[in-house]
Design goal:
heterodimer; A: mainly alpha; MetI-like fold; B: alpha+beta; D-Maltodextrin-Binding Protein, domain 2; 2 domains; 5-stranded mixed β-sheet; globular; membrane (chain A); transmembrane helix (chain A); ABC transporter permease (chain A); MetI-like (chain A); transmembrane (chain A)
């Protein structure tokens, strides 16, 4: 409760109301705060809450959307071999891509941080390029590099006498390719977040650690890392949500193939829901992400809260 | 005012004239639109001139019938047309008439206006339709859409005359010339001959460009291959019939064929086969003439050697892959009468011929009586390259959609999830036995049967 709200003096009982209740309400900080956040609240209600509830409603209808069938779509999916392949692939795709992005982003952030400030801006700008290009466009460029018949990578490999690689034609390589493109696209986001975190670590801590004789590794382990833990957790959570929901990379590169081995929730939901005319089942597929991500989000945010309280 | 030469009266007069002049078009527009307003969402044609001709035909009709036309061309790239259909069917508003791709009429049949009256008149006038459009657009005895000319396509063989003659010893132009008299070798054009030709072309470095991924070009030619072997996965009653000798045979055949195809065909999309032909790397693909049309622009030396001819025959006959579009009118349309009148107008022979001409022969009308347009005889080079693109009586072929005759609500899922291509991929890439691939397909299809 703000001081302003608490210090509003009570009007004498006999005095006439000046400006009325509306005026008093508008003076409250909480009212102003609510009004300022209202556009965002409306956006979230319209673009997140409503679609989520509508998807939930759709997922409980039969294929023709004429009958309420409860949880049948979900139980049906749980019995499907292809769906479990999609779950496996989605987890593999999201977890491995996020870990790699976090690792590469961490290394890049340190390298950038160590650069003299004069050249840092130039490198920072260049390293951000993959993240700035719309993924649908950059993925098309990657697709050209992986193209089955005219792959630029294969052309280069053949130039040095190495056999061409079926980048998108075999399950293992296709999985590798979609993860690689996601890592390429997403690493700059981690880099910039970690760089911001690194810049906020007070130099005095490093100086104190140096006086205590800490090595470079020990500074990283006992100073940098603890100071960055919250940023790392939140970045990983955010990226995991976005990566789990990825659509364009898989859709453009492999369309879920070969043999459904690269499908993730979003591409499989699209294939089942829009292409095959089973919108309720498609909605059910996409909703399977929700409990997985919710559990992860709860644990991550609990950790962040706990650490924040400890630091406070 | 004196300084600039304008008088008060002059300004007033000019203003009054201007107001009167600007009011005239309003009256005119009102007069033009007494038939109401019609919003159309038609398929965005691959051939740019196809859109121009369609716009001209539709606008002319609108003007004659005093209907205000709002025309959108909706691309199928990225399934934008499917998304539009899904959105409009949920919102119960949008366009009055849309182009519906292959399976969408069944999926949205409850929201589509019956078209029996139009189909009755068209059939009376133009005769027999191919059975596939009936399978796709007639739901519970009622036509829910009219088979469209624009966008409907066959996917017969499109081969290189020089390469096939030189390496496989097959003269495709002599076998299926640009007239109704097929050569003596046409009877031998079957999947066995095809396999030998594929082997010879592969050895010569011009492998056939046959995709086996999850895109429609793959699904379509594989569907016809299965059908000509009599390999039916689901019958018309919805019973799973995958465990059969014919399915085993076709899988064994496909395994042999794959040894003569590029190793990466399992990841090919709908453009990969076109590129294989246009780049001169491939001797044969299954495709509409769009690949030839692009070659005509980008690689004329390749285009001059291209020739469309029917797909090979199998033990059960010859089946040409076919992918039709439909024109449908939403039941929530505010101008159903005008929309239906336009659909009927577009389906007439005169308009069909214009559309076929503008699309360089790409569009395929649904009536057998409309397969004699001059365009298919004269397009080139080489002249007559697309003569055999529409199915002609002497081809002894039937237009065919993959997964037919399974009930459409099952077939659409089999089709879009590329079940037959995946069965081949399992046998070839995973080295599974045909029986194991069949067992997998049975489990998948069982799931598609849910209501």
């Amino acid at each position: 409760m703000s001081q302003g709200t608490l210090s509003v003096p009570a009007a004498p009982a006999a005095a006439p109301p000046r400006g009325g209740a509306l005026k008093r309400l508008s003076r409250r900080n909480s009212t102003v705060a609510f009004l300022l956040t209202l556009p965002l609240i409306l956006l979230i209600l319209g673009l997140v809450v409503y679609p989520f509830l509508y998807a939930l409603y759709l997922s409980m209808l039969n294929k023709r959307m004429t009958r309420f069938i409860g949880w049948e779509n979900f139980t049906f999916l749980l019995g499907r071999e292809t769906f479990w392949n999609v779950v496996f692939q989605s987890v593999l795709f999201a977890v491995s891509a996020v870990l790699l992005k976090a690792l590469i982003g961490f290394v890049l952030a340190h390298v950038l941080h160590a650069l003299p400030s004069k050249g840092q801006r130039k490198w920072r700008g260049m390293l951000l390029v993959p993240w700035v290009i719309p993924p649908a466009i950059s993925t098309l460029a990657w697709w050209w590099l992986f193209d089955p018949s005219y792959s630029a990578f294969n052309w280069a490999l053949m130039g040095i006498g190495v056999d061409p690689v079926p980048w998108l034609g075999q399950a293992g390589w296709a999985r590798f390719s979609v993860i690689l493109v996601n890592v390429w696209y997403g690493s700059p986001f981690f880099m910039i977040m970690y760089l911001a975190a690194l810049k906020s670590v007070p130099d005095q801590l490093y100086e104190a650690a140096a006086i205590d004789g800490a090595s470079g590794w020990q500074k990283l382990r006992y100073v940098t890392f603890p100071m960055m833990r919250n940023i790392i957790s939140i970045t990983v959570l955010f990226s995991l949500i976005v990566t789990f929901a990825n659509f364009d990379i898989v859709r453009i590169l492999t369309n879920g193939g070969p043999q459904d081995t690269t499908h993730v929730f979003a591409t499989y939901a699209f294939q089942v829901g829009i292409q095959s005319g089973d919108i309720p089942l498609g909605a059910s597929v996409s909703l399977f992400m929700f409990p997985l991500l919710a559990v992860f989000a709860i644990f991550t945010l609990r950790g962040v809260n706990k650490r924040s309280k400890e630091m406070a | 005012m004196e300084g600039n030469g304008f008088t008060r009266r002059g300004v007033l007069r000019a203003g009054a004239l201007g107001a009167a002049a600007s009011a005239l078009p309003l009256v005119n527009v009102h007069g033009q639109t007494s038939g109401g307003r019609l919003a159309l969402g038609l398929w965005d044609h691959w051939v740019p001139a196809g859109n121009d001709e369609m716009r001209r035909i539709v606008m002319d009709w609108g003007q004659k019938n005093k209907v205000e036309i709002q025309l959108d061309f909706i691309t199928s790239v990225g399934n934008k047309n499917l998304l539009t259909i899904a959105a409009e069917s949920q919102a119960k508003q949008g366009h009055d008439m849309l182009s519906f791709p292959t399976w969408e009429v069944h999926a949205k049949s409850e929201l589509l206006e019956p078209m029996d009256d139009i189909m009755g008149r068209l059939s009376g006038k133009y005769g027999a339709l191919n059975p596939i459009v009936e399978y796709l657009a007639k739901v519970e005895g009622k036509w829910r859409a009219v088979p469209a000319i624009s966008g409907s396509q066959n996917k017969p063989a499109l081969g290189r005359m020089d390469l096939l003659k030189q390496h496989a010893g097959i003269d495709i132009q002599a076998m299926f010339p640009a007239n109704a008299n097929p050569g003596s070798t046409a009877g031998n054009w079957n999947w066995d001959t095809f396999l030998k030709a594929a082997e010879a072309s592969h050895k010569a470095g011009f492998s056939f460009g046959l995709p086996i991924g999850q895109f429609t070009d793959a699904t379509d030619w594989i569907g016809s291959l299965f059908r000509s072997f009599g390999a039916e996965l689901v019958n018309s009653k919805g019973d799973i019939t995958a465990k059969s000798d014919n399915v085993r045979k076709v899988l064994e055949y496909a395994k042999q064929l794959c040894t003569f195809l590029p190793g990466d065909v399992f990841s090919w999309d709908d453009a990969s086969n076109n590129r294989a032909l246009i780049s001169g790397k491939s001797a044969l693909i299954f495709n509409p003439p769009s690949a030839w049309a692009v070659a005509k622009r980008d690689a004329p030396q390749v285009a001059e050697q291209c020739w469309s001819f029917p797909a090979p025959a199998g033990a059960q006959g010859r089946f040409t892959p076919y992918l039709p579009y439909f024109w449908g009118v939403w039941s929530f349309s505010r101008n159903k009468g005008a929309a239906k009148a336009l659909v009927e107008y577009l389906s007439q022979r005169e308009q069909a011929e214009l559309m076929v001409k503008a699309s360089n022969g790409y569009d395929i009308p649904p009536f057998t009586s409309m397969t004699d347009f001059k365009t298919w005889e004269t397009e080139g080079p080489p002249p007559g390259v697309v003569y055999n693109y529409p199915v002609k009586p002497h081809h002894n072929s039937q237009q065919f959609i993959a997964c037919y005759p399974a009930p459409p609500e099952i077939a659409v899922q089999m089709y879009n999830q590329g079940i037959q291509a995946k069965m081949i991929a399992r046998v070839v890439q995973n080295n599974e036995t045909p029986d194991r691939a069949i067992a997998w397909a049975e489990r998948e299809i069982e799931g598609f049967k849910r209501g």
